[in-house]
Amino acid sequence: MEHSSEYVIETRGLTKEFLGFVAVNDVNLKVKRNTIHAIIGPNGAGKSTCFNLITKFHPPTRGHIIFNGTDITKHSPSQIAREGVVRSFQISAVFPHMSVLENVRIGIQRRLGTSFHFWKSDKTLNILNDRALDALEQVGLTEFASEEAVNLPYGRKRALEIATTLAINPEVMLLDEPTQGMGHEDVERVTELIKKVSAGRTIIMVEHNMNVVANIADTISVLQRGEVIAEGDYQTVSKNPQVMEAYMGSADAELAGH
Question: Is the pTM of this model over 0.90?
Answer without folding.
Answer: no
